[in-house]
Design a protein that fits this description.
It is built from three helices and two strands. It is mainly α. It has one domain. Strands 1-2 form a two-stranded antiparallel ribbon. A hairpin with a 2-residue loop joins strand 1 and strand 2. It holds the Pfam family Transgly_assoc.
């Protein structure tokens, strides 16, 4: 149980860092940051591997890069859907 809480905290921080670097926010506040961070860690791990320091089973640098990609893509999709509406 403690490991799951740690993973969620690290995911939130990674998502928040990705949002800050890209300069766009994910919808949903902290829940969006957690999802963005966890999905970003998965994307970054698959694209870049597991190099660099690891916390809670996530390689931090690839996870942040993956979170940046996720934040950017989600903001593009949300922006496109808002323009159509």
């Amino acid at each position: 149980m403690l490991h799951l809480i740690w993973v969620l905290i690290v995911g939130a921080v990674i998502g928040a860092i990705g949002s800050l670097i890209v300069g766009r926010d994910l919808p949903g506040g902290w829940i969006g940051n957690i999802v963005g961070g966890l999905v970003g860690a998965w994307v970054g791990g698959n694209l870049l591997g597991g190099w660099g320091p690891q916390v809670a089973g996530m390689a931090i640098l690839p996870a942040i890069i993956g979170a940046m990609i996720v934040v950017f893509l989600v903001s593009l999709l949300i922006g496109a859907s808002r323009r159509r509406a």
